[in-house]
């Protein structure tokens, strides 16, 4: 019998299914590079990946993770299609000028760093709104929320409230969470219908 998937693995499963047919992607919160590496492994031959984080340490750690998991030749091939921005995800539309198939958010703070530097409710909400405009029809936005840290519940509530009011003719929205564990991280996935 197969176990239930943790939220991050379920987000990856959904994103992988969308990227099978190709398309560009955005990692809106690079962190330690886990989602970036996942997205690279699922990009089609000519697709681009845009990577954002407000912290230089996160961009550096993400690049380090790629160097650890990719050969130099593979990294050099990908380098023309990877775009790193030390910028807030709320500014993604300033850098990304084409539509994308997948956008991944993994909110909260950079693991192993000061937990005082966190994603903020209103910049996350602005990033989500801009991301939905950049998203292709049949594209996916995944958002992993962490209500258990300081500021996390406010961000989770704001995002959840916003997505619960999206037009059902334009977007499908699901929530995947552990309901018998208080303050557990959870996933919201949004599919653009048209």
UniProtKB/TrEMBL annotation:
Keywords: Methyltransferase, Transferase. One of its GO terms (molecular function) is methyltransferase activity. InterPro entries: MnmM_MeTrfase, SAM-dependent_MTases_sf. The keyword Manganese does not apply. This is 16S rRNA (Cytosine(1402)-N(4))-methyltransferase. It comes from the Bacteria. It comes from Desulfuribacillus alkaliarsenatis. One of its GO terms (biological process) is methylation.
């Amino acid at each position: 019998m197969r176990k239930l998937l943790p939220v991050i693995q379920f987000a990856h499963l959904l994103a992988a299914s969308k990227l099978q047919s190709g398309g560009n992607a955005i990692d809106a919160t690079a962190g330690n590079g886990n989602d970036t590496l996942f997205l690279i492994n699922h990009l089609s031959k000519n697709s681009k990946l845009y990577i954002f984080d407000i912290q230089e340490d996160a961009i550096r750690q993400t690049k380090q993770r790629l160097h650890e998991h990719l050969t130099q030749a593979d990294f050099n091939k990908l380098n023309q299609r990877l775009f790193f921005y030390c910028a807030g995800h709320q500014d993604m539309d300033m850098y990304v000028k084409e539509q994308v198939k997948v956008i991944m958010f993994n909110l909260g703070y950079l693991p192993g760093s000061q937990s005082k530097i966190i994603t903020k409710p209103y910049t996350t909400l602005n990033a989500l709104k801009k991301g939905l405009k950049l998203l292709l029809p049949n594209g996916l936005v995944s958002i992993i929320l962490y209500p258990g840290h300081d500021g996390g519940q406010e961000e989770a509530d704001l995002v959840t409230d916003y997505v619960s009011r999206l037009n059902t003719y334009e977007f499908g929205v699901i929530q995947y969470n552990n309901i018998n564990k208080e303050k557990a991280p959870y996933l919201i996935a949004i599919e653009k219908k048209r």
